[in-house]
Each structure stands twice: as C-alpha cells, then as structure tokens.
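Fold this complex.
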Amino acid sequence: MEISVVNLKKYYGEKQVLDIEELTIEKGKITGLIGPNGSGKSTLMNIISGIDLDFFGTIRYDGKPLDRSIYMNMTLVFQKPYLFRRRVYENIEYPLKVRGMDKGERIKKVENIIKRFEIEELREKKAHRLSGGESQKVSLARALIFEPKLLLLDEPTSNIDPESIKIMEREILRFNQETKGTVLIVTHNIEQSKRLCHNIIYLENGKVGYLE
Amino acid sequence: MDYILEGFREALKLLISFDKEVYDIITLSLFVSTTATIIASLICIPLGIHLGLKEFKGKRAFSRILYTSMSVPSVIVGLVVAIALSRRGPLGGLNLLYTPKAMIIAQTLLVTPLILGLTYSLSKNRGKEIEKVGTSLGAGRGDIIVLTIKELKLDLLVNVVTAFSRAISEVGAVMIVGGNIKNRTRVITTTISMMNSMGDYPMAIALGLVLLLMSFVINSLIYTYSGED
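Structure:
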C-alpha cells in the first residue's frame, strides 16, 4: 500500500506538532522514520493508522481516502504494547476473529506464527503477565497474523533483549519479502534502520528533514 | 443490653428454623434488586462504554449532569415513579403501584445513573487504549464495545455489585411505590424500618444479618474472581 501525505498539519492546542508539505511512503518497501524525541513521529504514525483523525491535510492510501477496507488492511504496533487480558493464543487469534475467518483456518495460522516467533511456551499464558520482550513479540505476531498491506511499527524493539530483537527483525523482513507489505517503522536505532530499511525519513520539529 | 442479646438469639432462631415470612421477604428483596440491576446493566454497560469512548459536543456538561444524577435520593425516584403510576398519573392504567413490578421500575431508575456513570467514567479513562488497539487490529464499533466489556469485566462487575448494593439497601423508593404490604411487597429494608419503629427487634436483626451476609458473600466472590484473573 502506498501512502501519500499532502499538506499535513497537526496541532495540540495552539502548538503545531506536524507540518508536512509532501511525503510518500513507497509501496512494498520498509521505510524508517527517525528523529529526536518530540519530533512528531508517533503523532504521524497515529494519523496514518487512522487512530487520530483530528488533523488538517490529505492522506491517501493507494490513492484512496481512509475507509473501512483500508482500516482492515493496516495495523499499528505500539511502543508499549497493550495485550488483551486473555491467553496469548487468543490475543494472536483476535484479528482473524474480527475478520470472520473460520476456526480451522484460524488454528492453522495461529499455530504457524507462534512457531515462527518461537513463543510456543507462551501459548497458554495470560498475555498481560508477560515480560516486555515477550509482549512485544506477541504484539508483532498479532499484527502480522492477518498479513496487512501496511504495517506501522512505533519503536517495536525498544527496551527488549537482543534475542527477541533478532526474531522480530527477522519476521519484519520476512513479512516484507513474502507479502510485499509496506512497513513504516519508527526507530531511534540507526543500526536497526540500516539492517531493515530501504528508505529513511528524518523528522524534526514536525517537519521532514531529508529523504534518503 | 439483654434485649439486644435476646434479639440476636431470636434472629438466629428465625433464620435456622427457615421462618417462611423471613425467607419470603429475603427472596422478594433479592428478586426485585437483582432484576433491577440486571435490566439497568444490560442497558447502561454498552451505552456507558459507547458514550465514554465517543467524542461529542457538550461531553463535559453531559459528564457533570450524569455524575450529579448518580446520587439522586431514592425517595425522589420513588416519588416520581409513584406519581407516574398513581391512578391519575400517565401510567396509572397499568395498575402497577404497590406491586413488585413498581418496585423493580423504581430500583431500575435508581441504579441506572449509577451504572451508567461508573461505566462511562471507566470507559473514558481506560477504554481509549483498548479502542486504539482494537481499531488498529480491524475491530468495528460493535467489536470495540464487546472487547472493552471483556477487558474491563472485573471493574464492570464491581460497578454492578455497587449498584446492586445500593438497590438492596435502599428503603425510600420501595417503601413509596411498594407500600410495604405483608406477603406482597415487603422487602428486607422496609421490614427492618417497620420492625424498628414497632420495637420488634428479632426479625429486624435477622434481616440485618442476612444483608451483611449477602454483602460478605458477594465481596468474597469478587475477590476470588479477581485473584484468578
């Protein structure tokens, strides 16, 4: 899914936090969004994901405005993941359930992704009792289970162990290569952006600094 | 001092001997308050969550009115229902005054703002994050409400119990619309009030003990459930 942003302005009260004239997130590519704290990265992610609709400007998804079908084809993984107060298995299964997928298909997909993320031992655990690294892996698995066309990641690997980071990066790359899904990832880690990203966008004071 | 001890002895006798009048009163109390709480919960929980999550014009004013209405005195609710159901009232033709149905209506109206207000506040404070995650995973409006109910079920249960406690312990509304008629509309609180004014303590103490026991059982169940969650 290609994202084009035109004349985007976002205010918190009197303060302008985003001012982007033009920005394109390329289809099928992994784009890194970097910049100092408070530069508007998370705000931009919330706007693109459709969670924050209070802004000025235009955002197009493959040339179309946001509608239900686009909502169903994108997802956002948050910096502090919120997992539902139920088992890990049920958390991962949730996006498939709301899409009305039949049980047999759901079981197959969930079992497959649990294996890929190497979280078999977490399967029956209550998700809200997991550690930070475990939660992030489950959160990413839950986001990837329905193979979105657009995957938005807001610092998904901050403060987690290197082994979990390795698994998550591997799965992000696999997702992008196998499904050609577009990925936009906020990161403070330059090395990570080099490992993962095709393009990098630099955001400072709500404005796009340079594009590489 | 003796008459108090005597009251307790007699109260225990009434309970242990399964005195029909005492148990009829307890059953009617439970029936009326449980029904009222269930009706109000079915309406107010989804509505409260929806309103808590939704941004609309005048939300702050709405919050204030709602929170104020949570503490409406039970006698006022009783009076309004009694006027509506009285022979000359707009619903007089239904002949519901001094029946358990009238008591259920009054208690439903009494606990409706309480459940709505508590759910609304809970949803406003903690539902946003659930909505955000649910939306990002493709959940529609209905899915979000169901998801929020499931995620906040323990807090919602506490709210429902709070409402039930208010219903079962109130005396004003049921007294006005029920009339405290023996074998018909007499409930725990109206009986305690009446027995106290008559100086007949054993039954009042017996029913008071039952109220305390109910509160203990309900709270124990909630704590057990929350520990398991």
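Chain B is about 80% helix and 0% strand.
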